[in-house]
TrEMBL record:
Source organism: Magallana gigas
Membrane spanning stretches: 12-39
Gene3D superfamilies associated with the record: 3.90.550.50
Keywords: Glycoprotein, Glycosyltransferase, Golgi apparatus, Membrane, Signal-anchor, Transferase, Transmembrane, Transmembrane helix
UniProt keyword Membrane, yes or no: yes
Name of the molecule in the record: Hexosyltransferase
Organism phylogeny: Eukaryota, Metazoa, Spiralia, Lophotrochozoa, Mollusca
Coarse class of the protein's main subcellular location: Golgi
């Protein structure tokens, strides 16, 4: 009886192949199924290469290329140490993490410093074309000084057609806070809220920028978010927002990537666990080093952000908001997330942003001599 069933099964599945192949097909399909289940349930990354190997093998068996099995199948090594089991508790987190929520992330912080007049117009002040909001932190005093002495001079101390402000959270260091308040009284270019200023709270800082611009700088036509280690050629920036204004009505522009994968390796910076973000790709996204958009989009992102759950990567967070709104990200020429070689390009229309400049390098780039105007 059992033998009969065995023979029938054999005939049913693969009459022309040998018993060994049949057993192999059966065994590998069970392993494959098991592994797929484990992978789905546990996000066990190391299994992916094995599943791939088995997939290749099983195809070979099915196409009767058994002689190649052992020799040509790609070999993958499995690093058990790096294997990324997610505990039962965390697995619940994975399945519970929603793409959207109902008011789980309201930006309800209070201003400590709010220089409301930054975007005021009239008298000797020009209309505001772009508001540039710069992420910084208390101890980066030298960087803020270098920015004010170089490319921010273009704003004519916040009276020109480009206005700017530095973004900070709260510090428990009293001396730092006193110094910041003195700085704010002198330059009137600081915005500070009462969340703790930390790397993990950069998303709060960025949302502070979107909120502040939406409510206190409505007169601006465009918005830029950037960092305190950036060089921004404001002439190039004004050209870019004019040229790409229609794109910026429907999303953000900058140094963007439409199919970026989350970094899963826990040893790397910007690593993101499956419980923080389970999908294979981020939505279209622009590097937080410098992106631009229209005020319309700024208001929409601010409004939707309360229903978009937190992620600590501030630029990814913005892309999740845009995705929710059905808005897009567009890579624009001249925006760079890496350091560009210091040279005449910095003073030309070819460059909008460059990253990782020290105060010394900022001065060097700003004071370049002998660059032809057309360069
Ligand atoms: C669960 O996730 C948290 C947050 O990512 C992490 O710190 C913790 O180690 C995880 N626990 C286990 C057992 O994997
Ligand atoms: C900000 O970050 C710090 C440390 O990373 C954390 O303790 C704090 O709860 C975070 N949130 C707020 C709203 O300050
Ligand atoms: C986008 O990011 C992925 C990594 O996630 C990378 O492989 C790809 O080259 C990037 N594309 C661009 C245009 O930079
Ligand atoms: C987003 O913009 C890119 C070009 O930057 C384009 O290829 C893509 O089709 C756009 N996607 C949507 C949904 O509009
Ligand atoms: C700029 O050009 C002038 C005259 O050609 C020259 O004397 C000067 O050294 C140059 N400066 C730099 C920084 O190259």
């Amino acid at each position: 009886m059992a033998f009969n069933l065995w023979r029938r099964l054999r005939r049913f599945f693969c009459t022309p192949c040998g018993m060994l192949n049949f057993v192999y097909v059966l065994a590998t399909s069970s392993v494959l199924l098991l592994m797929h289940l484990m992978y789905i349930n546990n996000n066990l990354k190391s299994l992916v290469p094995i599943v791939k190997t088995v997939n290749t093998d099983i195809k070979r068996v099915l196409y009767f290329q058994t002689s190649n099995l052992a020799t040509k199948a790609p070999t993958h090594s499995i690093n058990i140490v790096k294997t990324d089991w997610i505990s039962a508790q965390n697995r619940t987190l994975v399945s519970k993490r929603p793409d959207v929520c109902d008011s789980c992330f309201p930006h309800h912080y209070t201003y400590i410093l709010d220089n409301e007049e930054i975007c005021s117009v009239g008298a000797d002040k020009r209309d505001v074309k772009v508001i540039v909001l710069i992420s910084t932190t208390h101890v980066n005093t030298a960087r803020r000084k270098a920015l004010r002495e170089t490319w921010l001079t273009h704003t004519r101390s916040n009276t020109g057609d480009v206005r700017y402000a530095f973004l900070l959270g709260a510090t428990s260091n009293n001396a730092d806070q006193v110094a910041l308040e003195t700085e704010s009284a002198t330059y009137r270019d600081i915005i500070q809220e009462d969340f703790v200023d930390s790397y993990n709270n950069l998303t709060l800082k960025t949302m502070m920028a979107f909120k502040w611009a939406s409510l206190k700088c409505k007169v601006a036509k465009f918005f830029m978010k950037t960092d305190d280690d950036m060089f921004v050629n404001l002439n190039s920036l004004k050209d870019a927002v004019t040229k790409y204004s229609s794109v910026l009505e429907k999303g953000i522009g900058g140094y963007c990537n439409l199919s970026r994968e989350p970094i899963r390796s826990k040893t790397e910076k910007w690593s993101v666990t499956y419980e923080m973000y389970p999908n294979k790709l981020y939505p279209p996204y622009c590097s937080g080093t410098g992106y631009v958009t229209s005020m319309d989009v700024v208001e929409k992102v601010y409004k939707v952000s309360k229903d978009v759950p937190f992620i600590y990567l501030e630029d990814v967070y913005v892309s999740l908001c845009l995705n929710r709104l059905g808005l897009n990200a567009t890579h624009l020429p001249g925006f760079h997330a890496a350091l560009q070689k210091i040279g005449c390009e910095y003073q030309s229309k070819k460059l909008v942003t460059s990253h990782r400049l020290t105060p010394k390098m900022l001065h060097e780039a700003w004071n370049l001599k002998n660059c032809s105007k057309k360069a």
